[in-house]
Specification:
The mean pLDDT is 96. The protein is built from twelve helices and eight strands. The longest helix has 15 residues. Helix 6 crosses helix 7. Strands 1-2-4-3-5-6-7-8 form an eight-stranded mixed sheet, sandwiched between helices. Strand 3, helix 1 and strand 4 form a beta-alpha-beta unit. Helices cover 40% and strands 16% of the residues. With 274 residues, it is α/β, with parallel strands linked by helices.
Length: 274
């Protein structure tokens, strides 16, 4: 349970960010972005494999994982895009490769299209990129976040675990489910869970989705064929909008591809990054 620790810190406008790196510091840099309601923990297997040939940087977005959580925190897509651009400057990375999952896809795209972040290559894994997005449950919680915040802790815990479990097609190992749920428990974590959903405004992807045709770098789109959070039809729609896109579908994987088919995803990313 404690085999994934982020030891470095970065002070961002949205609170302290915890980050870490693996592999040769002189190797070609690859940055991994997680989605919601996850953390960098979902990248652990992929990160360790890629670290054999790359400098791999991972981070927990403000409001997620081991990073800061507090009342009034701005954890919107707009804020995360700015934080990521600032973090790249902090690392001194002029043109890394970027691999982004779910919500992290929108963060990486906003940082590139709106804040001038430059990438060598961009891999998008089941990304939040095209409207409409968000499951009926996600939208229900977003519309009534103050009500859900008042749930008794045991009911909140059950809700979070059940919700996380639906991201996987074959199902999550109980220890993995425990680790993913942990940051969202307790008084601070419960408030943070509903805060990030309440701030997940579709306008932040509306602002950029008409610009995907301007992307002029190599782009890989990976998608779990069994994704019930964002249907695979969106993969084809996104690939049609990006002139340089290569599309790879992963059979047997749901939304949380890193947990469902880690070997297949790692091999696909390794080929693309090389």
């Amino acid at each position: 349970m404690r085999d994934w620790e982020l030891t470095e810190t970065f002070d961002s406008p949205s609170g302290q960010v915890r980050w870490g790196q693996l592999g040769d510091p002189a190797g070609p840099p690859v940055v991994l972005l997680h989605g919601t309601p996850f953390s960098s923990y979902v990248w652990r297997a992929v990160a360790r494999a890629l670290a054999r040939n790359h400098r791999v940087l991972v981070w927990d977005m403000p409001g997620y994982g081991a990073s800061a959580q507090f009342d009034g925190q701005d954890v919107s897509l707009a804020a995360q895009g700015r934080v990521f651009a600032g973090l790249l400057d902090h690392w001194g990375l002029a043109e890394p490769s970027v691999v982004a999952h779910d919500f992290g896809g929108a963060v990486a795209l906003r940082a590139h299209l709106l804040h001038g972040a430059s990438y060598r290559r961009l891999a998008l894994v089941d990304p939040v990129a095209l409207a409409p997005w968000g499951s009926p449950f996600f939208r229900l919680v977003g519309d009534h976040a103050p009500v859900f915040e008042q749930l008794p802790p045991h009911l909140h815990r059950a809700l979070v675990r059940e919700y996380l479990g639906t991201a996987s097609s074959p199902g999550l190992h109980p220890a993995v489910l425990d680790r993913l749920a942990e940051p969202w428990l307790g008084e601070r974590g419960q408030a943070a869970f509903y805060r990030q959903i309440a701030q997940a405004d579709q306008r932040y992807t509306n602002e950029i989705q008409d610009r995907y045709g301007s992307l002029d770098l190599p782009v890989l789109i990976c998608w779990g064929e069994d994704d019930t959070w964002i249907p695979v039809a969106r993969a084809h729609e996104l690939a049609a909008r990006v002139p340089t896109a290569e599309l790879t579908l992963l059979p047997g994987a749901g939304h949380l591809v890193q947990e469902d088919t880690p070997a297949e995803l790692t091999a696909t990313l390794g080929d693309f990054l090389t």
